[in-house]
Each structure stands twice: as C-alpha cells, then as structure tokens.
Amino acid sequence: MKKTLKQTLFKKIKEHRPRTKRLLEEYGDVVVDQVTISQIIGGMRGLKSLVTDISYLDPEEGIRYRGFTLEEVIEGLPKPKGADMPYVEGLFYLLLTGDFPNQEEVMQVVDEFSKRRIVPRYVYEVIDSFPCCSHPMTIFSTAILTLSRESVFNRQYHAGLNKKEYWDATYEDSLNLLAKLPEIASYIYNKLYRQGPRIQSNPNLDMGANFAHMMGVAKPYDDVSRLHFIIHSDHESGNVSAHTGHLVASSLSDIYLSISAMINGLAGPLHGLANQEVLRWLHEVMDKMDNRIPTKEEMTQFVWDTLNSGQVIPGFGHAVLRKTDPRYMLQREFSLKHLPEDPIFKYADMLYQVVPDILMEHGKAKNPWPNVDAQSGVIQWHYGVTEYDFYTVLFGIGRSIGICANVIWDRALGYPLERPKSITTDMLEKIAGIKKMVETEEKTTL
Ligand code: CMX
C-alpha cells in the first residue's frame, strides 16, 4: 500500500526538524542581514527576515516552487486524462513534500478533497444574508471565517494538544478548508451574478474541473482554473497575503482565521485586487475608444493620463521582481494559443508593448514590467467570467493552497509567535544623528 500524503509529509517533517533545531541552537547568532532606515520606513523591502521552503522568488528569474520553475511544475505534475494542465491537488502534494506525486498519489489527494468538500448549510446562510453590492472578497473572507467553528485544531488545542502534533490538526483543517473553497467561491459567483439555481458539485471531478462545472463554464475553463490556481498559489513569504496568513497563524489562530485574514490582505488594489483593476482600467479605455483598438500613440496617451493623475498602472511593477513575471508569460502564451483575436487580449497586449517604456521614462517604478495580474482577468473575460470584481476570489483560492502548506510547515517546525520590534521616529533620528545637527543649527542661529 502506497503511503498517504500525510504519512509522506510526516517523514519529511521528521527529517527537517533537526536542521531547524541545529540552526537555532548552534548558529542562532550568525548575522544574515542588516536593516537600514529606508527599509524600516519603506515596508521592509528586501529585508531577509522570514523563512520558508515552499517557494523562493528570485528577482531576475521569478518564482520557483520547491526549487522548480512553473514550467517544470506544469510539466512534472500528473494531469487528468485529456487535460493540458495538471491536477491542482498534485501541486498541494508538491508544495507540502517537495516531491512530484505519481498518478496513484495524486488520486489519493483528489479523493481526500472530494470527501471533504461539503460546505455546512450555515455558511450558505451567511453568504445569502450579505447586503447587495458587497464585494465578493468580503463575502469570501467572511464565509471562510464562519467555518472556524469546525476547526479540528481548536478542538484538540483546548483538549490539551502536544506542540509536536500542531501540524497534524492544522493539516486536517487545511484539507477541510481547501476542499470547500471552490464550492464557496462558485456559490458566491452564482448568487451575485447568475441568480440561477446553484450547480451542485460533481464528486468525480478534480478541483479544477469541478470548479469549472460549478461555475457553469465549458472546457477549457477546467484547464484555465487549474492553471490559475497553480500559478497563484505561492510567491514566498513576504507578500501581503502570505505574510498575513503566516502572521495570524503564528498566534495559533486556526487556519480559517488565518486564511480569512490573508484574503483581506489580498483584497487590496496594490496586491491581488490589481487583477480586477486591470480590467476596469482597460474598459475605461475601451469606452473612450468606442471599443475600437487604440493606436499605440492613443494607448500611450491613456497611460500617461493615468500616471499624471497620480494613479498607478495596475498589473505593472513588483516589490521584488525585476523582470517580466513568468506567471504573466505563462498566461500570455495560453492567450496566444487560445484567444489571440480577443479584443481584450489585444488591448492587454498593447499595454505590454507601451507601458514598460513609459514607466521607465516616468522614472519611479523599480520594475516597469507586467506582473501576474496584467493577464489573468483577460483570460477569465474571454471565457465569459466578465464580472471582474470576482477575479481576486479566484486568486484567493489559489493563494490559500500555498498559505495552508506554509502554515502546516510553520507548525511542524515550531516557528514561534511573530513579533518584530518597532521604534519611534525620535529614535530613528537619533540613530541617524539628525537631532544633534538640528540642535547645533538652532544654537548657531541664536
Ligand atoms: N504605476 C505607477 N507607478 C508605479 C507603478 C505602477 N505600476 N509601480 C510602482 N510605481 C511607483 C510607486 O507607486 C512608487 O511611487 P512613490 O515613490 O511615489 O511612492 C515608486 O514607483 C517606487 O515603487 P517600487 O519600489 O517600484 O514598487 P513598490 O515595491 O513600492 O510597489 C507595487 C510594488 C506592486 C505595489 C507597485 O509596483 C504597484 O503599485 N503596481 C501596480 C499595482 C499592481 O499591479 N499590483 C499587483 C502586484 C502583484 C500582486 O501582488 O498581485
């Protein structure tokens, strides 16, 4: 009998624990980085102060999951029959263990997800009770929060759980939650935008196909969903959603509280919400152009107008990346293959041609190249999911997979409560020697 994912994971955890223990006990004083005032005031950019083995973001290369590029991940994971994109459940296996699952191993996870997918009725009642015009991310976050009462971790913790077992209960909570996210998200979508009867899930389908089925969108939307969830799952630890998930979980809040919190971080326009902002912005341009494809000069003018009015160009720039996001490139390749003639794709592609040069001339953004959000909405739009307010929910399903994997490992390795130290502006000025200079100046004037 093949080992289950949980058994394989436990073996990896036991192998890894001594590495963390040795680093802490024997090398705890080794200096990794130093911190400057601009990093303290400037959102801790580049400060090496978190650890994760699930993914690593190289500024010049882009994301690697467990050491593998996205192309290698897509190539190496098992795929459902006839699909171009792999099982999302297989990605979860890879993120947790660092190993590519074989067909039998991935089917075990597909089966686990299928068994845990049923959402309690009270969650639907909470969703139904939202006032109209609520943003789908607010509803999604609340629905997840509501599930906290199901937490295995909470139950076991209050009954007296050994620290070494925290990861196990968190693993159970994570699977229980991840399996339900497509059901919750598609329910929100249908409620907000379709008003038709809910499409029941099909327990025989994998996560991507089941999501497409519940959204009521035909093939290849199953592959679109798989690709979307896989490429959005993780982007190392420092981005707002990943960091929030880790931070909240570090106080031993359960996975539902942690994932709900990370969804709230993702809902900001400088982070995940940028994918809806790209479509909103493109539609403003389309309206002004009466749906005609603008010339390069016209598009250039729109971009400058946005910059000159003090707004950012959504879908461009990145806090870490310094080249075109490989997640953008993968989606662009998909679009070139499946929707090259779509007008929205043509608009987005024109942005790719004009924005980087403009941002360079503008001279502020450290990275003028497109990020993941510049292209994801274009694909959704093409397949009929045109309600762009919903796009960040899709990002949220994917990102939850990575955060759950991270939190399980955080608990397995006993990472403590996160608690950096803050200081005051007075103290920073003192460190910079500014106060002394001001006092001297005052004395001179007197
Ligand atoms: N358009 C206009 N100005 C931009 C810009 C853009 N796309 N990207 C960066 N800048 C500006 C910043 O606002 C900043 O201006 P100020 O000095 O006036 O504050 C300056 O350039 C320097 O910023 P940076 O160091 O290059 O970038 P940050 O690390 O501060 O911010 C990010 C990164 C993503 C928030 C920023 O590039 C941005 O706002 N992009 C547009 C929104 C977006 O696409 N977000 C999604 C990112 C991916 C994701 O998380 O989903």
UniProtKB/TrEMBL annotation:
Keywords: Transferase. It comes from the Bacteria. Gene3D superfamilies: Citrate Synthase, domain 1, Cytochrome P450-Terp, domain 2. Pathway: Carbohydrate metabolism; tricarboxylic acid cycle; isocitrate from oxaloacetate: step 1/2. One of its GO terms (molecular function) is citrate synthase activity. It is an enzyme of class 2 (transferase). Pfam families: Citrate_synt. GO terms for biological process: carbohydrate metabolic process; tricarboxylic acid cycle. Its EC number is 2.3.3.16. PANTHER family: CITRATE SYNTHASE, CITRATE SYNTHASE, MITOCHONDRIAL. Belongs to the citrate synthase family. NCBIfam families: PRK09569.1. This is citrate synthase (unknown stereospecificity).
